[in-house]
Amino acid sequence: MKRWGLALLAVIVILIVAVGAFLFIPHRLEEVSAPQGMPTGQALVQRGEYLARAADCVACHTAPGGKQYAGGLPFKLPVGTIYAPNITPDKRSGIGDWSDAEFVRAMHHGVGKNGEDLYPAFPYASYALMTTEDALAVKAYLFTLAPVQADTPANTLKFPFDQRRLMRFWKLLFLPGHRFQPDNGKSPDVNRGAYLVEALAHCGECHTPRNFMYGLDNAHKFAGAVTEGWKAYNITSSKTAGLGDWSDQQVADYLSTGHADKRGSAAGNMGEAVSLSLRHLTPDDIRSMVAYLRTIPSQGTATTESAVDLDPPALKASTPYSPTPDELQDASLGLQIFQSACASCHAWNGEGLQSPHAALIGSQTANDPEGTNLIQVILRGAKLETNQGTIAMPAFGKAYSDAEIAAVSNYVIAHFGNKKPAITPEDVAKARAF
Amino acid sequence: MAKKISGPSYGLLEPGDLSVTSRRRFLQGGGAGLLMGFVWLRNGKAWAAGEEPSLKVIGGGDNNGGNTFQGFQPGGFIRIAGDGKITFIIPNTEMGQGIYTGESMLIAEELEVGLDQITVIPAPPNEQLYQQPILKSQATGGSTSIRGAWIPLRQAGAAARTMLVAAAAARWGVPAGECTAERAVVKHGPTGRTLGYGELVDDASKQTVPADIVLKDPKDFKLVGKPAKRIDTPSKVNGSALYGIDVRLPGMKIAAVEVCPVVDGKLKDVDTRPARAVPGVVDVVKLDNAVAVIGDHFWAARQGLAALDINWDNGSKENVSTQRIVEDLKTASEVGKPVMGRTVGDVAAGFRNAAKTVEAVYQLPFLAHATMEPINTTVHVRPDACEIWVGTQAPTAVQKAAADLTGLPVEKVIVNNYMIGGGFGRRLIADSIVQAVNIAKQVSYPVKVIWTREQDIKHDLFRPAYYDHIKAGLGADGMPTVFTDRVTGGSVLGSYLPKGLPEGVLDTDAIEGAAETPYDFPATQVDWVRKDPPIKVNWWRGVGPTHNVFVVESFIDEMAQAAGKDPVEYRRALLGKNPRALAVLNLAAEKAGWGEKLPDRTGRGISLHDSFGSYLAVVLETSVSPAGEVKLRRITAAVDCGININPNSVKAQVEGGFVFGLSAALYNGITLANGQVEQNNFNDYRQIRINEIPPFEVHIVASGENPGGLGESGTVSAAPSLGNAIFAATGVRLRTLPFDREELRQKGSDGSVLSMVAPVGLAVAGLASSDGAKTSSDPARPDLSLSSEMV
Amino acid sequence: MISLKINGQSHDVDVPGDMPLLWVLRDVVGLTGTKFGCGIAQCGACTVHIDGKPVRSCVMNVSAVGDRPITTVEAVGETPAGKKVQEAWLDLEVVQCGYCQSGQVMSATALLTRNPRPSDADIDAAMAGNICRCGTYPRIRAAIKKAAEV
Ligand code: FES
Ligand code: FES
Fold first, then answer.
1. How far is CA B357 from CA B172, B343, B511, B522, in A?
2. Ligand 1 centre distance from Cα of residue C20 (Å)
């Protein structure tokens, strides 16, 4: 008995020591050196700028109204708020005194300068796939920015989430231990696209559903997910829910301009990704991304099956300037709001008036009976930077009641999506809370 | 029978006090009888300072007026050239109220010319000539224009006609009594000879100004009181009308500005290079609290501004929030020291003798003006002069502000006043002119500063927020024994007067509409606790009454409710001493079908007030959907504005004013957080639209009383009639503006309720089909439709 | 250089392609009848016709116009519907400050061009995008009906 007891104790001690070691042994700092043939000087910086854009660093590392890359953007989680840090080369408040090795370690392993574990709001599970060379190029670019003195607000996470070491368990489960591996069975285009989509653009961070531990559920890769009240749509090859029915041109247009003919426009995080990142990519890279996306096997969406109706009867019976006679006769609250605040841009026949970006025909957002993104875009508006100027939709949340926004959402989805939605004022109230 | 009238006149009054009591006193007591405009002839001045260049510019350099003018110029209002061309110089600013037409009618009536025979130009800044007798400054506001112009402008026309007729009579050698004038022609009755006014200008100029002016008897009016077509309409339907924002000058550039978003914050620094790199950007100018980018066109300027990364010094008001302001108002109302407004009768006894007391707190928000034409000013500062092109309600204030800033004498500041795309009080303040002059001082060319709508809303000077505690004692019969109202809010007058309003002094605007109501209360006490907000405030259409009448008229309904009486019946019982108010109340109620049955969740609300010298009652009928949406079904107004000059404009002002007030009642409130205004544009500072407006009738009560003001009356009526209608429809009393429609939603109503809303355009047809529905579905409330059947 | 056909005349303008048509009309071509009210397609003050169809010029990139003809309020009276609308506007004294009315006239003209007998609901659908702060809505409705009768 005694021996058994000792053995048990020994096992427990070993476990505790092992876990303790796992949690407390400092992270190694691997030496990094510039790979052979890596560009230097201005060429390196330019490459870094392109990659930083492709990786959309600025989106998270800039607070609304704040200086670019100076951090401060809050990530509001149920367990508290995390703030994106300042990554300008300010020595005190930014990353000015980070070494190459420290920077690469952060990108690949989610470890901060002082060896602290970083939270995966920083998508290092994707950036881990980035080549060391590219990571160094990004650093070279960031170090050319004007240093901004801006202290990042302290995170306000509740216990135990404020214990950074616990992220080591998370990493054990979800952090890839390798860089991007090209698949020799695929074309260079597809491989390039895979690298862009998976490593840099980190599309999966929004488009792949997460498991209960906030890890990406790669069994449902790109099947769509909801983040902060916005739906990232299914981008698999599913014909009903995903991009299966889109032409290559449509996907490419959507990525590079935020709009595709008969496919609606990007808003929310996707609008931001287009504005800050994707529109700056070369046509070749966009084509590669499309090629890779085409290889993603079809998955039913993890959210709603809401096949886009490309030819809704109500649109055929409308003109740009008037709805169907039945709808007009009905004069629902939703229609009244639409004719007041929406029709001048969107047009009743779905074609969009002043700008094609306002066209709602084929828009996934107008076809989703849950109205997730529709409600958000009405509440918060949208702003899209394109290479042809800014496209914006104002935010209506402050002046329209929950009932009104529910009514106009129901109208839009019925009219432009030919669905039977049942959005309630309570749904709108919930959407406001994000 | 013609009779001699003396009354208030323009000019030569003490500037300063804008108080309501003095306005009333002035109106009742009349003025000294000086004939405005003739001041000039008597003084022998060739022209008024600053007048000549303005008139020349506005008149396109033709022979309209000013020092190059040749012809008959009897005072400040009338110019008749040798070719017969007649020009009126209109003392008030046209901002939609139809004043160019109304004031022209007054002059034309007595001058005996047709409206089709004249052109009008706006008066240049000149307090001596164009000081408004009620406001006692050259300004347009407070629904005072017609009241102030009623006698002086007719006198001006009559004097000029008298001189023209005398000139013709002298030419013919006949007694003036044998001559008549009509459509700008003097005729000698016995011989049928005629002379056009143009032919008489030299002789008329030599005539002496008549000492006593005889005005027409109203029954002889040819123009006044008949619907007249507005003279500014044609240019406004074909795009040729010029507003300040439309000014185009040789060499002119256009500026966009960004002001520190935090109240009273300052500019710290800005790297101007990104803006200068934008094609079309000409200059970047820094101000104390703003950056202006000047471009060849507004788009370049805006793009340049957008390219800048401006560092602001947010200053001390970073934490200003409406939440805090409202809390402060509440505290001030409870513990602050009130200034007595009006007290009548024994208030304490009134409460002692009451069988019941009713009390309530009402709250009103800050309001932006959001004039359709965004703020804009064009300025050219030259070494020797400063020229300004702007639509302003206060041209002399503009002139003085620019003189102060440039160090030029006022006569070197030329103000070209334009038609305004909506004033509503916004353009009484010269803030945008100050900004534009400060920009123009730094460049050599004329610069037009345009505010975006976002700037226009964020940097407006708002109507103050209020917190009002109102209370009444009711006798055993339900009728009031006492009525008290404690108003708490900032002082608009204090914000407007150059040196502010001293503490402890009453701002009569704060209590106007509450201190004196149409009703006869045995005892009244209305006082005011001053609590100035940390932001600047300003006059807003309807001024004091818009705020106070909402509170009072809502509360009268609450009193009627507590007394178990019909709201119209209850008011009637309080109007024994006020026949004009009673008459409009009765007319509106009758025309609206007050008391007739309505469908479920549908009700009528009444509001009554006498403000600005006019009486207005409005019945608004509304339904409230289960989703809480307010659907207006019918609006019926009855107005007594005394002698009405142009019935067309009377109706238009009641309609337009009311619709303006509806936007505020339903949708508008400016809020601040972190020292910044939270609203931006029409997406979040929402305006009522055509599909929300039901049929609207305005009935005019014939009256021989002196004209009242009407530019603001409709606005005053909107919120109270709507609040009362919502109560009648739902049993929910909303005491905070804008009305929170979420409170009207029947809880548990699902998405399906959202399509149950009656179409507005078909509202009247819908009335017919309501079969026997009761007004009230709430058993706890008295059935108002029953008691009102006694009406 | 962008070439525009405005009110039957051609204009060559040297402006960036993303410049809204509104500012090209007002600040470059000098046609100030078209008004700026909001800049975000919420008020309708900037309404012009392109190919006879109403558009909000404040959010229309000038490069998107192409060679389609533009009509502004200055010339809309030369169309049959525009003439009727302007006359009805005068007959019923619609206008107050007038600042929104260029846009109202343009929207109403477009409505009557495509629908000579509009119902109340048709009027709502066509006119609800045009804000009037002066509250001339009851008269706008009446004037459209009047214009439809003649
Ligand atoms: S200015 Fe274009 S819609 Fe308002
Ligand atoms: S007439 Fe003034 S905004 Fe419409």
1. 77, 19, 22, 15
2. 11
Whether B682 is in the pocket of ligand 2, judged by its Cβ within 6 Å, is no
CATH code for the domain of A327: 1.10.760.10
A 325-354: CB under 8 A from B? 329-334, 336, 339-341
- One of 1.10.10.10, 1.10.1710.10, 3.10.20.30, 3.30.365.10 is the CATH number of C2-71, namely 3.10.20.30
Q: Do B757 and A398 touch (CB under 8 A)?
A: no
Burial class (CB in 10 A: 0-12, 13-18, 19+), A366: buried
Q: Compute the distance between CA of residue B276 and CA of residue B531 in angstroms, rounded to an integer.
A: 45
**Assigned fold of B243-319+375-450:** Aldehyde Oxidoreductase; domain 4 (3.30.365)
- Six token digits for residue B157: 């026309």
Q: Do B652 and C139 touch (CB under 8 A)?
A: yes
User: Angle at CA B172, nearest 5°, toward B170 and B178?
Assistant: 85
- Cβ contact C80:B231 at 8 Å: no
CB pairs under 8 A between A and C: 66
Q: Residue A309 CB: number of other CB atoms within 10 A?
A: 17
User: For chain B, which residues lie within 8 Å of any Cβ of chain A, measuring from their own Cβ?
Assistant: 309, 625, 627-629, 667, 678-681, 683-686, 689, 691-692, 741-742, 745, 750-755, 757-762
Which residues of chain C lie closer than 8 angstroms to B696, CB-CB?
A: 138
Domain count, chain A: 3
Residues of chain B whose pLDDT is less than 70?
1-68, 748-791
Pair A158, A68 in one domain: yes
Residues of B in contact with A398 (CB under 8 A): 678-679, 684
Q: Is the C-beta atom of B96 inside 6 A of ligand 2?
A: yes
Reduced to 3 states (helix: H, G, I; strand: E, B; else coil), residue B215 is: strand
A392 CA to centre of ligand 2 in angstroms: 26
CB B552 within 8 A of CB B468: no
Closest ligand to B683 CA? 1
- State whether the Cα torsion A258-A262-A263-A266 is positive or negative: positive
**Please, how many CA atoms are within 13 Å of residue A24, restricted to the half-sphere of its CB?**
6
| pLDDT score at B265 | 97
3-state secondary structure of B251: coil
**How many angstroms separate the alpha carbon of residue A65 from the centre of ligand 1?**
26
| A2 domain residue, yes or no | no
This complex has an ipTM of 0.93
**Does B522 sit behind a cis peptide bond, omega within 30 degrees of 0 on the bond before it?**
no
| pTM of the complete model | 0.91
What does the block give as tokens for A10?
Answer: 């020994």
Selecting from B237, B423, B452 the residue whose C-beta is nearest the C-beta of C86 gives B237
- Asked if C137 and B690 come within 8 Å (Cβ–Cβ), the reply is yes
Model confidence pLDDT, tens digit, residues C42-99:
999 999 999 999 999 999 999 999 999 999 999 999 999 999 999 999 999 999 999 9
Per the annotation, binding residues of A are 57, 60-61, 203, 206-207, 342, 345-346
Which residue pairs, CB below 8 angstroms and at least 24 apart, start in B380-383?
Answer: B380/B249, B380/B440, B380/B445, B380/B446, B380/B447, B381/B406, B381/B437, B381/B440, B381/B441
CATH number for the domain formed by residue range(s) C76-149: 1.10.150.120
pLDDT means per 10 residues in chain A (434 residues)?
79 85 84 83 95 96 92 89 96 96 96 94 94 96 96 92 89 90 95 97 94 89 92 93 95 98 96 97 98 93 70 95 95 96 97 96 95 97 93 96 96 96 95 92
Q: Is the CB of C82 under 6 A from ligand 1?
A: no
Q: Is the Cβ pair B693, C138 closer than 8 Å?
A: yes
| Partner-chain contact B239 C31, CB within 8 Å | yes
